[in-house]
Amino acid sequence: MIKKSKRSQHETAGFVLIVLIVSIIEVIFLSIALAKDNKSLPSPEISHLLEATMYSTTDCAINYIPQYRDVQDLIKECYKDMKGDYRDCLGERDVCQVLEDNLKELIEESLDVGEKSRNKAYKLDIYFTYGDEIYPNEEIMSLNKGAFINCSSIIGGGHSIAAGSFGFGSIETELTVCKGN
Q1: φ and ψ at residue 87, rounded to 5 degrees
Q2: Which pTM does this prediction carry?
Q3: Domain spans of the chain?
């Protein structure tokens, strides 16, 4: 009788060991699968770059000189422009075009993007969102340079701008960067 008891204990221990090994393998495969879906890793450096960019003064004055607007204000003005409240920078320059030019210059100088550089590509998305699934996001601007091919890692960051006079919602900026070897 003792022999049967030890034999069943060995079979039970073996079964538990097999279940444990299979569970560990499933967890490993699941973590690999989820890691592939979430390619963009949050980066404090990218978030800080966006933050600094938002408060950079541009060469656009809307009402009078020397009231030059910062990038964050130009994003709001560009969104107003899309909604029909047309305002130009002094000198009759389009607010959205001045914003695009300033953003490209600031980001490309800060990131040094190119094939021979560590940063292979970037994508900047600026959009208005109500923060729910009922209303779609309204694209304000999208900028990119380079191609997201053969990235060793993809990092990103974001910055929110309070909507203020636009009602409920916010303006979101998201910057994603392709890092190479």
Answers
A1: -140, 135
A2: 0.74
A3: 1-38, 40-179
